[in-house]
Structures are given as C-alpha cells and as structure tokens.
Amino acid sequence: MRARIAGTGSCLPGLRVTNDDLGKILDTSDEWIRSRTGIGARHIAVEETAAGMSAEAAVQALKEADVKPEELDLIIAATLSPDHIVPPLSCEIQRDIGAVNAAAYDLCAACSGFIFALIAAQAYIQCGMYRKILITGTEILSKLLDWTDRSTCVLFGDGAGAAVICADEQGMLAGVQGSDGVKGSVLSCGGRPVQNPYANQMPPGQYVQMNGQEVYKFAVRTVPKCINEALAKAELQPEDISLYLLHQANQRIIDAVAKRLKQPADKFPVCLEECGNISAASVPVLLDRVNKDGKLKRGDKIVLAGFGAGLTWGAAVLVW
Ligand code: ACO
To answer: What is the rounded CA–CA span in Å between residue 241 and residue 318?
Structure first.
C-alpha cells in the first residue's frame, strides 16, 4: 500500500504584516526584501497558538478526506516552535480534534519537517502498521526571532498546514531524505541554557541566526540533486511532473532549482509572497492553496521538497 494525500488544510494568523509595515519599525524597505526574497508580507500570531492553528488545518483536511478524527491511527506534528516543550504539539492537536485512538508525536527536522513526516507516514503504511495518519507542519517562528535583526526577522512568518494520509493503491512513489549535522551552525536557534545547582552556562544565541549565503548555496546544490534522486527512484523524468511544491524560503532559490531541473517556472507555485518563510508549515500551506485553487487533478504526479536547518533536506514524488 501507498500513502495517498486524501485531504489538506491550512491556517494563517489574522495579523498580516507587510514589508512596508516592517519599514516603520526597522531600517528596511519593501524594495530590499522583495527583490532579494520575493516576500511581500507575512502573518504573525498574536492570539493564535500552534495547537489552535494546527487543529483548524487538521479539521479542514479531515473533512476533505472524509475521515473522522477517531479513525486516525497516528498524528505526526512537524514543528520547531511548539507552544510547549511538553506536552507535545501532536498530543494537543489530538486533544483538540478528538482523535482519541491516535498515537501522537512531534518531529523536528526544521523546514524539511513536513516532508520527513510524509516519508514516515509512507513507511508506516507500507509496512501495514497504520492506515490513516494526520501530518501537520506548524510554526510560530515570530517568537524565535530577534525583531531588531533586520537580516533575519523580515524573512519568516507563522502558520499551519495539515494533510490526512490514507493507505491506498496509488500515492507516494518515492521519497528521499538526508541530513548534514556538520553544517548545523549555518542556520541555528539556541535552546534554553543549562541552569542547575552544578552548572550555570550562558545561553547560546536564543534567536534564529543564519548565514544566508551559505544557506543559498546549500539549497541550490542539494534540492535539485535530492529531487533527481527521488525521480530516479520513481522511474520518472522532471518533465513527467506537473507541479513542484518547494519549501518557500526564497524566490531566488526556487528559480535556481527550476533552472537546474530545466523546468518552466509555472510548475513551481509559490505562497511566500503572502506568507514569508513558515519553515515546516510552508509546504503544507502551499499544498493546501494549490489544492483549494483546483490546480491538482487525481492522477497528477507532483513533487514536494523541503530543505533547512540541521542541515536537512527531503523530496517526495506522489501521484495525486
Ligand atoms: N533590509 C535592508 N538591508 C538589509 C536587510 C534588510 N532586511 N538585511 C540585511 N541588509 C543589509 C545588510 O546589512 C548588508 O549591508 P552592508 O552591505 O551595508 O553590510 C546588505 O544588506 C547585504 O547583506 P547580506 O546578508 O549579504 O544580504 P544578501 O544579499 O546575502 O541577502 C538573503 C540576504 C536574502 C537572506 C540571502 O542571503 C539569501 O537569499 N539567502 C538564502 C537563504 C534564505 O533565503 N534563507 C531563509 C531562511 S532559511 C531556510 O528556510 C532554509
């Protein structure tokens, strides 16, 4: 059996912050941000929680899939910014949607998280362990940003996306994932400092820190390679794919990947203009938008791909 995406959903916070809005609190401009990244706005959580946004996205996905919450066997929540360290976000989603029969756990692979969750779902379904799985990608990155650092805070946003995965004859054809911990410092965000009666270490940088040029080089080299590996496993060529849904970090990265795959730009839909970079949420939010816009037809072959901190990367080839 294969993992088929049977329903999608998404939720963005109500507050929309444009580049011009940021220009009022930082030494930046719409021109600088838009020309280098393609980002025009981002949504920022004020009242919203990661659990609340995820549950809303999950309810939409369950409805489209015609699956009841109690039918779910498993929930995997991809996030690097849950509301709490414990309970896990996945358990809060389980509580909020009433998925009483599901096991639930969180997965952190940064911006690749949703792809890693999808590949895990495929493995569970392929081995016969589970049949109905909810995967979510959710971030409230605004709480991890240094809002005085214009080189990072303009890039990111908040939001959630979800997909219900069902065991089916048709679905995921191939998945590839990888990691390179040696290059972890290229994109990082420190945790809580060790403070106990025996140690009192200074906290590492507690906000997102990034070497943008190194991330750019990593992404444009690794993403096409990883997509080509996944296509080879699926015995497909780049031209067999109708849509490539990539992690929404930067328009220039997406353009470079399209060029390296020799595929037209219109096969690479984007939502970063409206959402910024939402890390693990960016692929499922984009997937839901494309789905709701009616751009996916059953039988279409699509690629989902993510890349990010870790470093991590992954690509999945699916029949819709
Ligand atoms: N507004 C105005 N000026 C700015 C801003 C800003 N928001 N941010 C930085 N600058 C200035 C810098 O201070 C610097 O000024 P200086 O020359 O006087 O010192 C100048 O702009 C250039 O700064 P760089 O950091 O070298 O900017 P760069 O041209 O590399 O662009 C960017 C930065 C857009 C992040 C680029 O490196 C990039 O595209 N990186 C790809 C990685 C990426 O998109 N990461 C996003 C998240 S990671 C992920 O999701 C995997």
So the answer is: 9
Task: At 273, give phi and psi (nearest 5°).
Answer: -60, -35
- Which one is catalytic: 91, 153, 271, 277? 277
Which of 111, 153, 166, 271 does the annotation list as catalytic?
A: 111
Torsion of CA 5, 303, 127, 106, to 10 degrees: -70
Amino acid at 26: L
Point out the ligand 1 atom lying closest to the alpha carbon of residue 153.
Answer: 7
15 beta partners: 44
Per-residue pLDDT of the chain (320 residues; tens, 9 = 90+): 999 999 999 999 999 999 999 999 999 999 999 999 999 999 999 999 999 999 999 999 999 999 999 999 999 999 999 999 999 999 999 999 999 999 999 999 999 999 999 999 999 999 999 999 999 999 999 999 999 999 999 999 999 999 999 999 999 999 999 999 999 999 999 888 787 888 877 666 689 999 999 999 999 999 999 999 999 999 999 999 999 999 999 999 999 999 999 999 999 999 999 999 999 999 999 999 999 999 999 999 999 999 999 999 999 999 99
Distance 9 CA to ligand 1 centre (A): 31
The verdict on the CB of residue 212 being under 6 Å from ligand 1 is: yes
Whole-prediction pTM:
0.96
- Our answer to whether residue 101 is catalytic in this structure is no
Q: Has 247 been annotated as catalytic?
A: yes
Cα dihedral sign for 196, 197, 203, 207?
Answer: positive
Q: What is the CA radius of gyration of the chain?
A: 19
Q: How far apart are CA 43 and CA 27, in angstroms?
A: 20
- Report the distance separating Cα 181 and Cα 21, nearest Å: 36
